[in-house]
Design brief:
Belongs to the TRAFAC class TrmE-Era-EngA-EngB-Septin-like GTPase superfamily. EngB GTPase family. By secondary structure, this protein is an alpha/beta fold. Helix content is about 30%, strand content about 20%. The protein binds guanosine-5'-diphosphate (GDP).
């Protein structure tokens, strides 16, 4: 499934710019700097996927990537800038919620959390949005190489408990490091299971 180089199909800033929903889709969400582009690159065996910036002040878009005839990946704009204007937060929420509400081909949202950090208020807001729209999702702890094995297990349990408390659509948490490759094969295999047979 991940054999082909990802091709940017669309960088959509509005509902009417979403491409046709032909293939099963996996979307990636997370706070800015969580390691989302690194993970998408690691999954697709690339060193560099065309990057459309989501830094403050620049235009946010939902980026749709084709990775072959069986699966698409969707890079949701990063969120959680403490210094982002309310207006920007609102436009993030509106575009992402429209995507979650309307996208029939969406199989799962991978919600990335930095393994060193707790779930933040902005992460919990996104979880509420996923719950409200009955979207199946899964927590991915990123940068697993940055914490000790013992700490990682403890943090994983805490994060899973926190989402289990509010959720019925959540799949078991996974841990990855794009740096070392730990967990990447396993995640790739799991996502391949959601692709067209
Ligand atoms: P994005 O903003 O979520 O797309 O985050 P990036 O993928 O650009 O990564 C943000 C920063 O975290 C960069 O400096 C990366 O090199 C670093 N990073 C990403 N993944 C890992 C990882 O698995 N381990 C470590 N140690 N650093 C990582």
């Amino acid at each position: 499934v991940f054999a082909e180089e990802p091709k940017l199909i669309a960088a959509a800033q509005a509902l009417n710019e979403f491409p046709p929903a032909h293939l099963p889709e996996i979307a990636f969400a997370g706070r800015s700097n969580v390691g989302k582009s690194s993970l998408i690159n690691a999954l697709s065996r690339r060193t560099h996927v065309t990057r459309v910036s989501d830094k403050p002040g620049e235009t946010q878009s939902i980026n749709f990537y084709g990775i072959g005839p069986r699966l698409s990946l969707v890079d949701l704009p990063g969120y959680g800038f403490a210094y982002a204007a309310d207006e920007k937060r609102e436009s993030w929420s509106q575009l992402v919620e429209e995507y979650l509400q309307t996208r029939k081909s969406l199989k799962r949202v991978m919600l990335l959390i930095d393994a060193r950090l707790q779930l933040k208020a902005s992460d919990l807001d996104v979880i509420d949005m996923l719950e409200r729209n009955r979207v199946r999702y899964q927590i991915v702890l990123t940068k697993a190489d940055m914490v000790s094995t013992k700490d990682l297990a403890r943090r994983a349990t805490a994060a899973q408990q926190e989402v289990d408390r509010r959720s019925s659509h959540v799949s078991p948490l996974v841990m990855v490091s794009s740096q070392t490759g730990a967990g990447v094969l396993k995640l790739r295999a799991a996502l391949s299971g959601l692709a067209v047979r």
